[in-house]
Amino acid sequence: MNIQKIKISDVYKREFYIKKYGIEENDFNFYKYALEIRNISTGIVDNIVSLFDSQKVLIHNSELQNQNSVFVLSAAPKKKFNFKNTESLLEENIVNQIKSTCDNYFTFDNKQFKIKNRVFNYSSTYIMGILNVTPDSFSDGGKYYSRDKAVKRAIKMIDSGVDIIDVGGESTRPGADFVNESEEIERVVPVIQEILNLRPDTIISVYTAKSKVAAYAIDAGASLINDISAFAFDNEITDVAREYDVPYILMHMKGTPRTMQNSPFYEDPVADIYDFLNEKIEQLLNRGIKNIIIDPGIGFGKRVADNMEIINRLFEFKGLGLPILIGLSRKSFLGKILNLEVDNRDIATVIAESLSVSNGATIVRTHNTDYAMQLRKITNFSENQIEKIEVL
Questions:
Q1: CATH number of the domain where residue 221 is located
Q2: Which of 70, 165, 185, 330 could cross-link to 345 by cystine, CB 3.0-4.6 Å?
Q3: pTM for the whole thing?
């Protein structure tokens, strides 16, 4: 069973759920919030429905891909949902899950997480600068393949105020070739060491799906693991995250970089990705990993419409209660929408990043950090009183 907290405040979201559940347009004039409870066994649908006070909510049942789902519209202005008294353990467990999801959604902006010795706020915007130490990445492949050029690029980003440097030694573009771990280690570890030699306080993430590469990178000074595979390519990478006690970025991808764009399909991309992340989060928690950042994986096995739907409904992932990273920089869906080649997608990128931030993204992973830093300054303006005073 998967539970998702939803704020249905604009036309786009109303139209989506009206179509999905056959809800009347007029219902949205009174009911403001919703829970979508998916993948429910047939025998307990009635029990779930009976949990809610029918005078406070409107409930719709549906069957999607042979899985029962319940959509609960509520007039509650905040996190309170009205439940009837329950007796069975099953019902009590469901109530606890619903309450937890609602709490995650409504307390999201007040939460914090830690990387290295730095505290990050969910409600602020942070920039992760991409550093591809590769000859074949889709956007800047070969540009920073030399160690000296990679380090100089990193220092420039750090000195401009970029929060995290994401160092990767293997391209994950569609159709990318596999790089063996020794080659990947040789590409990233010396760069990490040199960056930290010059700027010791830098927060560096290692962009890898290989446990051995992650371990070598952390030994060299990296502070978190950015794994596109959700530990599917190398299960032992979670052992590295636990043993070194570093944050783990959990991303959704359908297939592999070689196959991910071979006719991907979703009935509801946000629900499918949410369920995937929810299941993986539980597995990570059971493995002793508590510092988790989620990434819905824009462009990794998604169609153009899927990517835009994820951005427009990104706030729904707040129900998972974890910081959200978005990585859409210069990706092909922007090029397809606007008919732009990769080198001309930076303006489109920062527009899409801005929309993502407004919908809940905390970390923006990007190539053009100059544009992203402007985005960060504007979105964090109300929190930075010193800058505010100087501008006034």
A1: 3.20.20.20
A2: 330
A3: 0.89
